[in-house]
């Protein structure tokens, strides 16, 4: 066994490798997309009302 390879102590038969045609994205890209989606969602929900400001 190659000494650079690490083995997991968790062995589950249901784990499958990704198919070559499945979409993959790095974690940082997913986080950026989620933050942008939350900002857009908040802009739809937020009601601008001067009489309610600070209450």
Q: How much of the residues is beta strand, in percent?
A: under 5%
The total of helices stands at: 1
Question: Can you give the mean pLDDT?
Answer: 79
Question: What series of H and E elements makes up the topology?
Answer: H
Number of strands: 0
Uncertain segments of ≥5 residues (pLDDT<50)? none
Q: What is the oligomer described by this structure?
A: single chain
Question: How many whole angstroms does the radius of gyration measure?
Answer: 22 Å
How many angstroms separate the termini? 64 Å
Structural class by sheet pairing and helices: mainly alpha
| Main sheet record | none
Q: How would the global form be characterised?
A: elongated
Fraction in helix: 25-40%
Q: Mind sketching the topology for me?
A:
Elements: H1 27-45
